[in-house]
Amino acid sequence: MSSIPSNYLVLLSPTSLTGTGLGLFVLWYILSSVVAWYRLRHIPGPFIASFSYLWHMGNIFLGCASPEHIALKRYGSLVRTGPNYVVTDDPNILRRINGARSSWPRDSWYTSSRFDPNYHMLSLLDTAARDTIKAKLTSGYSGRDVQIENGVNTQIEFLVETIRSRYLSTSTRHQPTDLAQVIRYFTLDVITHLSYGTSFGFLAAEQDLYDYTNSVDRFIRAITLSVDIPLFRWIAYSPLLTGIMPKASDKSGMGKLIGIGQKIVNERFQDNEKHAPDMLGSFMRHGATREECVSETMLTLIAGSDTTATAIRSTMLYLISTPRVYNRLKAEIQEAASDNRVSSPIGVDEAKRLPYLQAVILEGFRMRPPVVYGQYKAAPPGGETINGVFIPGGTAVGQNAVAMMRSEKAFGAGVDLFRPERFLECSEEARREMERTVGLVFGTGRWMCAGRTVAWVELNKIFFELLRAFDFQPIYPTKPVDEESYALFTHKNMWVAITETA
Question: What transmembrane ranges does the database entry give (predicted)?
């Protein structure tokens, strides 16, 4: 038998094979980057984003996605943010690609919103399958089967009682309160009460039960990495890493609450208890399976609490930082209460008759929309021309929510200023158009966020009741809150002093 020549042995050595593999990878990366750049070369954006995901990675690691996306306005209405990502701040483009008859399906970006092996309404890509599950859930979310307003009232009353008994500052007692965490506990109690018929008691416990909120903050950062970067998406949901995802057997974090929710669902199905006046009962009555109920109720917990908490915290921050607006809203609240024009807690219909309150809600949502960007749709196979720009088939186009909310074309001058009067000093037609644009943050058409009704009920009540009962003052006005932004916002250390309204 002839021996293998020594030069072949050198080529087959581990060092040589490693070098060859690395060289092939570098060559593949360069070629694929050139192809990616060339395909969307006509769409402006940060140069590094035209051939890599480094722009997104930098935003994630620095927690600065919001200011970076606002800064994209300088490139125009269609901006490239990745090899296959384009975002827009144009409301008309978003209505076009999200319309009922649109041929733009969801992009695979959505699949990373899963937090267990099962898909839920937000992560499903197949339009027909999503419509089927949505039909089972709509009555629970809309209020047809669930008394949403009564449930929110119960939690608001408890919030006011809790602040009065635990968090008030007086002339003899200084009680710093992290309003960011208090509001987060409130929204968690609201959504668990509506979903399962009983709140999980975060506010009553006055603590982060099971380390849940800390785990969600970590999850938001990790999930943003996986939704924005396909390689991380593949890694995160590969069979090799399923063990590190939150699971019902966990003793803390998101997994613990998944386990609690799973236990409640299992007990309901075991007893065939379909008539409970909560979301879970509604889902069951409309044919949702056990697995669907577990996934969908957990989705309401994550998506329905943190986003609303962001809207409440941000609006409160702008209010207490803007005395002119704070005092005007306070006067409207006190006048409505003293004239006995409102209930306690205020009803949604009553709140809608208070013009400045409505303007504050809309302006707060505009200044800090809970979702920074996302909701990507994939261009149809043949591509499509939008505003004179050709979008090749398969390109993911999503909303740049924070930039859209800072659009001078949509909202007039001074978009960086918290000024609710912009919704009152215009024609009725202009106001309706601004409201429609603000509403796009929830999606539009068939892709409208199912939890919109719950969020608006909370927003129509919470500011009125907090300012009816209390006054708020930031303790650290030069650093009122620690904020980071990914696809969503996180807030911590929003320290305030709360006093009883005189």
Answer: 20-40
274 near 314, Cβ under 8 Å?
Answer: no
Q: Where are the alpha helices (H) located in 63-211, listed in sequence order? A: 65-70, 91-98, 127-142, 148-162, 179-196, 202-205
User: Is 449 marked as a binding-site residue?
Assistant: yes
Q: What is the CATH number of domain 44-500?
A: 1.10.630.10
The pLDDT tens digits of the residues spanning 174-219 come to 999 999 999 999 999 999 999 999 999 999 999 999 999 999 998 8
What pTM does this model have?
Answer: 0.92
User: HSE-up of 282 (CA within 13 Å, CB side)?
Assistant: 25
Separation of alpha carbons 360 and 177, rounded Å: 23
Token pair, residue 246, equals 């939150």
* Amino acid letter, 470: F
pLDDT at residue 400, as a whole number:
98
Q: In whole angstroms, how large is the CA radius of gyration of the chain?
A: 25
**Amino acid identity, residue 456?**
W
Helix, strand, or coil (residue 426): coil
45 pLDDT exceeds 90? yes
Write out 331-381 in H/E/C secondary structure.
HHHHHHHHCCCCCCCCCHHHHCCCHHHHHHHHHHHHHCCCECCEEEEECCC
Q: How far apart are CA 475 and CA 425, in angstroms?
A: 33
For residue 296 the two structure tokens come to: 């969908």
Contacts of 500 (CB under 8 A, 6+ apart): 164, 168, 469, 470, 471
Task: Give φ, ψ of 374 to 5 degrees.
Answer: 130, -145
